[in-house]
Amino acid sequence: MTRYSRITGTGSFLPPQCLTNADLVAQLAKDGVETSDEWIVERTGIRARHFADAGMFSSDLGFEAAKKALASAGRRPEDIDLIIVATSTPDMVFPSTACILQHKLAQIDAAAAGIAGAPAFDVQAVCSGFIYALTVADAMIRAGSAKRALVIGAEVFSRLLDFKDRTTCVLFGDGAGAVVLEASETPGILASDIHADGKHVGMLCVPGHVQNGHILGDPLLKMDGQAVFKLAVGLLEGAARAALQKANLQDSDIDWLIPHQANIRIIQSTAKKLKLPMEKVVLTVHHHGNTSAASIPLALDVGVRSGQIKPEQTLMLEGVGGGFTWGAVLLKL
Ligand code: UT7
Which pTM does this prediction carry? Predict the structure, then answer.
């Protein structure tokens, strides 16, 4: 019998500290950096972002989202036999955030300790990270090497922001989203399509690195926003079309588009290319800005919990980010 994978639970978490555009405008003004609520809303759709307090890491945000996803799937930590965390803001250089998160889940109670021993690793594909992680988890489940996976996107991008650079610091925030993905006799994940092209490394990057106890190079986020914008729409359309083709489906079969939440204008352009009205797009970017690998599972969870997304509907998840990386996953809930 063919084995598939299917999402059985979703969860998300935003850290409590919320900065509206007005809050951020006032904070930046103290350092002579000029921006405005009007500019941010008009160019990006963003109205607020959440920042994690010092001492709160990606594993903490991911832990909260994972607990909610487990609860909504009716599962416990000890039921999980694979953990994949998509993040570009790991707690440490090593070990992986997935290992740290696994141990947090294992400490919930005596039975939860049974999650120890499950393979746990991070995927680093920046804003496409969750699409990559879901693709890997699906492949491992279909291959029979896992039955029940936790797939998490968790980021503290606020730590990478240059608050003197108004072209980037207004765009990003912190958060996490998670799904439980289980082996199933019926699909679930219908198709996925992931790509990378390293020639664009410099377009969106954090170039610094640790060497002999020092940070060498700039440890803050650099982005050529216009170049990213121009590239993103075409790549997202291409990945979505490739996933549809693999599943033998059409644009019109998509019930919901759940895009990476970076910029409302990129989302609108992509929806238009896929001939989808904005009523079929789950939008959360205004609440939390670009949370990188967390943004797609965050939006998925919001769509599911709000009742917008119904069981058995067909969803197109898609993302693009540093690397350049991009991809799409087409699935039935
Ligand atoms: O996950 C993937 C990650 N990245 C993205 O998705 C980002 C993709 N790119 C974008 O979203 C957009 O390119 C931005 C939102 C970053 C910028 O929007 P834009 O419409 O491409 O603006 P622009 O870069 O062409 O800048 C227009 C003007 C410039 O002023 P001048 O040269 O026209 O006088 C900028 O200096 O807006 C100015 N500007 C700002 N003004 C007020 C740039 N940032 C700000 C700001 N507040 N925060």
Answer: 0.97
